[in-house]
């Protein structure tokens, strides 16, 4: 291959991205913040987190407070709930092809979370800072270098013992709530105007999970403090805002995708929760 062409391909860093988030936001924006920062579920991911939060990984619920190194993969669902308005995080995302044949992925699957003492936290943070600097640079072989940095993160994790106790025993309500939240998140994002949510009501979720709807509502309210309908409405609202701001689809098409039979129903729902109409939000954006 032509050396110049090879360098250009390497400089693109296809299948890799690293970024930093160091934010303080009002408490009301905490769930939105976490959803925005960690919304890509189709990549492998290495996170350095410094915050107080709840991490849900598969059917596990983890209370985090301090510095952690977390490995996520697209085959196991996870979510992050902030318990504070302060978050400092580094994240690198990469496809399987980017590190294919070179990573110890089995270690990430078995021990996904590692508590970082101060020296290790500083070292890991330094690796992410080096990746950020290289990503912005013009080194012709940065792809190889980034793969090396990912390997350093993996081997640093292998030196550490998994956070203990990492997985807390769960009761039936917690397990059912985790399944509900996983089913809810699987429906997003909406990618085509012809796509429609398969599950739009608490009853439909209960049917999918083979439980009584009252039992589902009680479990979700007990674990999260919010009823099933509130979670569903909130997630639909988030997707509606994203589609209004980032697509040119008509309001009627967006409402149809999100399960509203008539545009007037969608307008009423949106204004009830935001105080403005869908078109008003689009125009402001």
Automatic annotation (TrEMBL):
Keyword Transcription: yes
Annotated SMART domains: HTH_ARAC
Domain annotation HTH araC/xylS-type: ranges: 174-284
Keywords: DNA-binding, Transcription, Transcription regulation
Residue stretches spanning the membrane: none
PANTHER family xrefs: ARAC-FAMILY TRANSCRIPTIONAL REGULATOR (PTHR43280), TRANSCRIPTIONAL REGULATORY PROTEIN (PTHR43280:SF32)
The protein's name: Helix-turn-helix transcriptional regulator
Protein source organism: Hymenobacter tibetensis
């Amino acid at each position: 291959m032509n050396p110049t062409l090879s360098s250009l391909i390497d400089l693109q860093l296809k299948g890799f991205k690293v970024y930093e988030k160091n934010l303080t936001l009002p408490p009301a924006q905490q769930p939105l913040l976490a959803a925005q920062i960690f919304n890509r579920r189709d990549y492998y991911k290495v996170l350095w987190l410094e915050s107080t939060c709840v991490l849900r990984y598969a059917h596990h619920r983890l209370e985090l407070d301090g510095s952690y190194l977390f490995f996520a993969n697209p085959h196991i669902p996870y979510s992050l709930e902030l318990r504070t308005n302060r978050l400092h995080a580094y994240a690198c995302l990469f496809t399987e092809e980017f590190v294919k044949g070179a990573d110890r992925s089995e270690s990430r699957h078995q021990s996904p979370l590692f508590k970082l003492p101060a020296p290790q936290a500083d070292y890991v943070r330094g690796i992410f800072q080096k990746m950020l600097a290289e990503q912005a640079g013009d080194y012709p072989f940065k792809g190889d270098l980034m793969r090396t940095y990912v390997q350093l993160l993996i081997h640093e994790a292998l030196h550490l013992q998994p956070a203990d106790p990492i997985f807390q025993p769960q009761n039936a309500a917690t397990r059912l709530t985790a399944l509900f939240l996983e089913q809810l998140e699987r429906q997003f994002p909406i990618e085509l105007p012809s796509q429609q949510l398969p599950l739009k009501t608490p009853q439909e979720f209960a049917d999918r999970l083979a439980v009584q709807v009252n039992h589902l509502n009680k479990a979700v309210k007990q674990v999260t403090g919010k009823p099933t309908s509130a979670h569903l409405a909130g997630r639909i609202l988030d997707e509606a805002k994203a589609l209004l701001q980032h697509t040119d689809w008509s309001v009627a098409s967006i409402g149809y995708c999100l399960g509203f039979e008539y545009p007037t129903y969608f307008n009423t729902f949106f204004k009830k929760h935001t105080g403005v109409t869908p078109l008003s939000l689009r125009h402001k954006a």
